[in-house]
Amino acid sequence: MTEDELRVRVSYHAVTRYCQRILDVTVPWAVDPLSPKEIAEAHCLTAEMSIEAVRALIMVPAVQSASLAGITHVRVEDFVAKLGKNGIVVTIQEPPAKRTKPFKLMSRNERRRKQHAHSRRIRHKPLPPQAGDE
Fold it and tell me: For 54-123, where are the E strands, in sequence order?
């Protein structure tokens, strides 16, 4: 597939969501509900970009590969792309927050105390009933 054919595989809704969630563009609505294409054009106009430029930002190599392979979710650095069954990018989400805990360094005594408590729990834990025991 050519670059142009791959860019068409991004829906207008995905373009709108990319502008809203990643580019942080808001459009005040004072008119009746518009078509998805008109909404995407309004967001791109506010972001001072064309629809094709936003589609190019969405269709990074990882999303292209996922689209061709039939994968439904792809996480890249800036966003998560959700793809439909036919490989079209349906929507864009912000990446989930990384849940990291700081690494805790334990002293030798803390490790021994924790290991001792764990082994006590394991030692006194009742065994599950066996299949033949009734």
Answer: 73-75, 80-83, 89-93
